[in-house]
Amino acid sequence: MNINEILQQKLDSRMHAIKAADERSAQLRLEIPEIAAIDNDLHTVSIRIMKAALDGRDELDERITAIKNENDSLLLKRASVLEQHGYSADYDSPVFTCVSCSDTGYVGLNFCECIKKAYNNDRYTTSGLGRALYGKDFNNFSLKYYSGKGSIGISDLENMTMIVNQSKRYAQSFSPESESVLMIGGTGLGKTHLSAAIAKEVLSKGFFVYYDSAQSIFDTYESVRFGKESRESAKKYENCDLLIIDDLGAECLTQYTIAVFSSLLNWRITNRKQTIISTNFTPQQIKKSYGERIYSRLMGEFLIMKFTGQDVRLLKLSEKTKV
Ligand SMILES: [Zn+2]
Question: Which residue among 106, 138, 153, 299 is buried most deeply as judged by most CB within 10 Å?
Answer without folding.
Answer: 138
